[in-house]
Amino acid sequence: MVSPRIKKYKKRLVHYFKNRFAVVNENPIIVLGNQKSGTSAIAHLLADYGGLSRTIDIPPLWVPVVFKIMSGEIDFQDMVKRHRLYFSTELIKEPNMTFFTNRVLTAFPQARYVFIVRDPRDNIRSLLNRMKIPGNLTEINEHVFTTAPLNRFRMTLDASAWGGDKTENYIGALAHKWNKAVDNYLPYRDRMILVKYEDFLADKYGLIASLAQQLHIPEKANIRDKLDVQYQPAGDRNVSWEAFFGVGNLTRIERICSSRMKVFGYKERPQ
């Protein structure tokens, strides 16, 4: 029986050789959008629909590297060269690239771009569901980060990392993160196809088929049996915003995201 350590070593070795001989795709479809906005489901279904090779997530671009690319400390084009296997496919989805869109556009000027947006209240609720963090706290205590997987969320929950005030609580941090994502879309909207996650939920097959048509992707497979596959753990959409966040944190999201919400037709609650 092969030990997990040996398996891991073999996997890394295979990846090393594949990466060494991979060729960067100069004109892929690149799917952007904040984490938990529906990027995984839409990217998988679109790739299945058109029979496209795909990259779903690029670990070398995760925290803390994403912040170093945002600040210019690490060159994105150098990362593409070093990790070219991830960038060799016909469709590439990595939400962290959303936060340095200008560098992605420079590296891939011939790419076709899709941007996924989701109501910030649903988006932030889903993010917190994934992190197993309640939405109605005033502040986050250290005990929330008792497990190793959650340690990587520390920087994500710092509002100053996303252009906000460091005094904002964790809800404010995620609201500024949502703003940062859409602010990286708006200047380049003419180069991207916008998809609202709410439209996807209303008609999954119709939206994928329409998106494929806009991208000139012919249908290669029937995806109807895959429409409800959970590509990531689902958040709890049944709990109301008020119940999940409490009035204070919900009001905080709407205050911070208000102007951008209007751009996408997301309405604030009646006051």
Number of distinct beta strands: 5
- What characteristic shape results from the CA principal axes? globular
Largest sheet: 5 strands, parallel
pLDDT < 50 stretches: none
Widest sheet, order of strands: 2-3-1-4-5
Distance between the termini: 64 Å
Nearest-angstrom radius of gyration?
19 Å
Average pLDDT: 93
Strand content: 5-15%
Question: What is the percent of helical residues?
Answer: 40-55%
Structural class: alpha/beta
Order of helices and strands: HEHEHHEHEHHHEHHH
Q: So how many helices?
A: 11
List keywords for this structure.
single chain; 271 residues; alpha/beta; five-stranded parallel sheet
Describe the structure.
This protein has 271 residues and is an alpha/beta fold. The chain is 45% helix and 8% strand. The protein is built from eleven helices and five strands; from the N terminus they run αβαβααβαβαααβααα. Strands 2-3-1-4-5 form a five-stranded parallel beta sheet. The longest helix is centred in the last third of the chain and has 23 residues, at 241-263.
Task: Describe the secondary-structure layout.
Elements: H1 4-21, E1 29-33, H2 39-50, E2 54-56, H3 65-71, H4 76-82, E3 91-93, H5 101-107, E4 112-117, H6 120-131, H7 148-151, H8 170-183, E5 192-196, H9 197-202, H10 204-214, H11 241-263
Helix pairs in contact: 2-10, 6-11, 8-11
How would you concisely characterize the structure shown here?
It contains eleven helices and five strands, in the order H-E-H-E-H-H-E-H-E-H-H-H-E-H-H-H. With 271 residues, it is an alpha/beta fold. Helix 8 (170-183) packs parallel to helix 11.
